[in-house]
Structure formats: structure tokens, C-alpha cells
Design goal:
Distance between the termini: 13 Å
Number of domains: 3
CATH architecture of the largest domain: 3-Layer(aba) Sandwich
CATH superfamily of the largest domain: P-loop containing nucleotide triphosphate hydrolases
Oligomer: single chain
Largest sheet: 7 strands, parallel
Number of strands: 14
Strand content: 15-25%
Length: 400
């Protein structure tokens, strides 16, 4: 896939699916490690403690004025208006000055952020909450705020007065750290990207052929795609392609850059496909039959073929026999008298020795590539060395 300089999204999708297990493992590892690191960062250092102090101011009116604010029930408008006034600079400035006199220096803006005022529509009670980092500061601020607020009821509202009900109560507030949402999003995105990248990285490092696009792009051939166990229809397509290309191609070479039992079975099945049409086929594996081919170059050597429609040469104990071109041509002439078609099987990525001679006398060459078995280097080397040796060159890809 990665041999293609153009982006092929279907092939990229196939790669990601093929490496899905590795990608999921990488994503999970990164997520677990990332969340663990985020947890450690949140746990140390510990967040500073917060203290909340609350004081209460009760609004009251002279008896003769009760009907202005209270008409059998509390008038919430009066209470809410004063509560809003407490949070303005009119109250905050004198509070700031009194706190400064007690040694507590705080900016006006910070002071206003520390204070929250709450009311209840069912009564005239105002609660002032102050939150700071120190217990004594929270208590004194709440106390001063309640005192100043109660003293300024008449000046702000025109009528009424305020009464501080009790000393401020101080409670420690547990600091709740917010989840680092942005960091979590970045972590998830990074895990997904690295997971997918790991799949592509493994595909680059894997030197085996993983798709037919290798043949199309790097080898420059449109392969015939077969199942690992080819069907009769697929084998018939191979036979028809050969017959239409060079009729009649009586001598074939099946090249196996890296052999496997599936490739050997595919060649045998192709020979059976020809035999089913009534032809007699001779199947020769030069890795084991070279000595027999050499002996049959002599006219006096009797031919003892094994098998019927798909015949094999008799086995010999001699190995690593190097043929000469004359020996191969003499033997081949003899074979053609007895068989309609001869198929040589050659193995290896180097076009030399017997393999080179077989390609020289062949009418067509079949290069068998198997997904997950044949290496890219072996297939490419073989293609470069032997692409001009035969009239017809067909690539068979066993995979999907």
C-alpha cells in the first residue's frame, strides 16, 4: 500500500483494519498512562484549603412603618434591593478601610469577589458569605461586612435598620479541582493519532506484501487476484489469459519468489485445469527435478513419467544440478513430443542458473505473489531481473 505515492483511501482503510488490534492496544496504553499522569498532576501539590464564613443581618422597621415593607407578609423587593446594595462599592469601601485598620489588606475587586449575599423571599434575613484562604480573614471580613451593612440600612434605603444576629460561623470548604477538560481532549486525540500511526508504522516496517496494490504500483502489473485456494473459475481465467495472450503457450514458467505450500498447490491446480480440457501436462520443479531433466537430454535415457494427465519426472537423489541451455532444449524437445504443455516451477528471487534458462525457453511467465508470505524485496528484485525474458508476463496474487 505504502509503495503508492498517490493516496488510496481504500487501501489506507484496509491497513488500519488489518492493524486494528495493535492500534487499539497503543490507544489504551496511551490513555491509561495519560490519565495516570493527569491524576498525579492533580494530586500534587494539594490544593489550598478554603474557609467560608457567614453572618446574618435582620432588616427591621419601626412599628409605624411596618406596612411599607410588611403587609402581613415580607416584601421581597425591599430586602433584595438592600442585598444588591451590599455588594456595591458603597459598602465595600468602608469594609476595606476597616479591614486595613485590622491589618487585613485586600483590593476592592478581590473583596467583592470574596463576598456573596443571599436572601429568602419568606423573611427579611440577609446572609453574607465570605470565602478566603485563611480562617481568621474569612471570619473578620464577614463580621465587618455585617456590621457595616447594618449601619448603612437607613442611609441606603431611607427607612429601617439592620441588626447583626450572631457572630460569623466559619466552615472549611473542600477544594474541588476541576477536570482538565482541554488536557483530556488533547490526550484522547493524541492517543487516536498515535494509535493509527502505529498501524501505518508497522505496515511500513512489514516487508511482506500485504495488498495487490504493490503489484499495480511498484511492479507495474495488473495482477490476477486469486484466493489462497483458487477456485475453478479463477484458474480458468488464468488459463484463458494465457491462451489469449500467446496462443499456444506450450511452455510456462511459474516463478515463486518465496515458496509456500499454497503456491505449490495453486500451480498444481492450474495444471489440473489444463488437464481437465484433455491436455497432457508435465509439471517440473527445477529445484528437485533438474537432475532428471539432465538425464533425459540423452536420447538413450528412457522416459519414466509418473502420473497420467499431470505427470511428474522420476525422483533422483542428485541435488543442486546446474543445467546447460543445450541440455534443457534437448529435454524440452523430447517433452513436447509427449505432452501438450510443460510447466516449470522455479523458486527464488535471483534469476540465475536453471531459473534463467527456464525463462529463456518459456513462452509465458507466471509470477506468484502470496499475501503475507512473499516479501516486497524478493518480488521487486525478481520483476526487475526477468521482466524482459519472456513474451508474456502475468502476475498472480494469492490474497484479497
Amino acid at each position: 500500500m505504502l509503495e503508492n505515492k498517490k493516496i488510496n483511501w481504500r487501501e489506507i482503510s484496509n491497513v488500519l483494519k488489518r492493524r486494528a488490534l495493535i492500534e487499539i492496544i497503543v490507544v489504551l496504553i496511551i490513555l491509561v498512562a495519560g490519565f495516570f499522569a493527569l491524576h498525579l498532576r492533580r494530586a500534587t501539590p494539594a490544593a489550598p484549603a478554603k474557609y467560608d464564613a457567614s453572618s446574618q443581618v435582620l432588616l427591621t422597621l419601626p412599628e409605624s412603618k411596618q406596612q411599607v415593607v410588611l403587609d402581613q407578609t415580607v416584601n421581597p423587593q425591599y430586602v433584595n434591593t438592600f442585598a444588591a446594595a451590599i455588594q456595591t462599592d458603597t459598602i465595600a469601601r468602608p469594609v476595606q478601610r476597616k479591614l486595613a485598620a485590622k491589618g487585613i489588606k485586600v483590593s476592592l475587586r478581590k473583596l467583592e469577589k470574596q463576598v456573596n449575599v443571599h436572601t429568602n423571599n419568606n423573611n427579611s434575613l440577609i446572609e453574607i458569605n465570605v470565602t478566603t484562604d485563611q480562617r481568621i480573614t474569612a471570619k473578620q471580613t464577614a463580621q465587618v461586612y455585617a456590621q457595616v451593612a447594618s449601619e448603612n440600612v437607613r442611609s441606603l434605603m431611607g427607612i429601617g435598620r439592620g441588626e447583626v444576629l450572631a457572630q460569623p460561623r466559619v466552615n472549611q470548604v473542600l477544594a474541588i479541582q476541576k477536570l482538565p477538560v482541554k488536557q483530556i481532549i488533547v490526550l484522547i486525540v493524541a492517543a487516536l493519532v498515535l494509535g493509527l500511526a502505529s498501524g501505518c508504522g508497522l505496515e511500513i516496517l512489514d516487508r511482506r506484501i500485504r495488498s495487490r496494490y504493490f503489484a499495480e504500483t511498484t511492479l507495474g502489473s495488473q495482477p490476477l487476484v486469486l484466493d489462497v485456494q483458487p477456485t475453478a473459475v479463477q484458474l480458468a481465467a488464468v488459463r484463458n489469459t494465457l491462451d489469449m495472450a500467446t496462443p499456444p503457450a506450450t511452455t510456462l514458467v511459474a516463478q515463486l519468489p518465496l515458496t509456500s505450500s499454497e503456491q505449490q498447490a495453486a500451480v498444481q491446480a492450474l495444471a489440473q485445469q489444463y488437464a481437465a480440457t484433455g491436455e497432457r501436462i508435465l509439471l517440473i520443479d527445477l529445484a528437485t527435478d533438474a537432475a532428471a531433466v539432465q538425464q533425459l537430454a540423452l536420447p538413450a535415457t528412457p522416459a519414466d513419467y509418473q502420473g497420467n494427465n499431470v505427470a511428474r519426472l522420476p525422483q533422483t537423489t542428485t541435488t543442486n544440478t546446474l543445467l546447460t541451455l543445450q541440455e534443457l532444449e534437448l529435454s524440452l524437445a523430447r517433452f513436447k513430443k509427449d505432452f501438450q504443455r510443460v510447466i516449470f516451477v522455479v523458486t527464488g528471487a535471483q534469476t540465475a542458473g536453471n531459473q534463467q534458462l527456464a525463462l529463456h525457453v518459456a513462452d509465458a511467465r507466471l509470477t506468484l505473489l502470496q499475501q503475507g508470505v512473499t516479501t516486497k524485496k524478493a518480488a521487486y528484485t525478481l520483476q526487475q531481473q526477468s521482466q524482459q525474458t519472456t513474451p508474456v508476463n502475468i502476475v498472480l496474487y494469492l490474497g484479497n
